[in-house]
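REQUEST FORM: STRUCTURE PREDICTION
Request ID: SP-0412
Submitted by: Lab K.M.
Chain count: 1
Length (residues): 149
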Amino acid sequence: MARRSEIVGMKELERAFQRLGKVPQPAATKSSRAGGRVALRAAKALAPKDTGELEEGIIMRRERTRVKGKAVHDIMMDPAKNDVFVKTTKDGKRYYYPASQEYGFLTRDGGYVPGYRFLRRAIDENAELIERTILEIAGKEVDKALKKG
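STATUS: Completed
RESULT:
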């Protein structure tokens, strides 16, 4: 679901980028990583704690891109732990445990158990803090680049 929001300080940062010419890759990487760390900590704090497997399995990974000046960090479940997360029912059906905890699941008698939405809430509840952190780090990195010349 797309959201539209106004980010305070974005116009000043855009002007600084125009003076610089392009977004320096270290600025994009550091600011993206800092914002991702905020979301990662929140997701781990909100994860259901029955066994602790979910909390340990949440990782942050950088997305690969060919575009210079772009950096994206994903908060996701660790694929290396799929042997722990893929569960099997008595009748042989397989299911992915983190997905059932995030989105909910149907019970055998046809009831519905709603999900915890811990990954979604980690982003939604901390959107302002994430944006503020990204802008702060990006601004500092751009200032460093402008001072270097």
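NOTES: Residues 10-148 form one domain.
Reviewed by: T.R.
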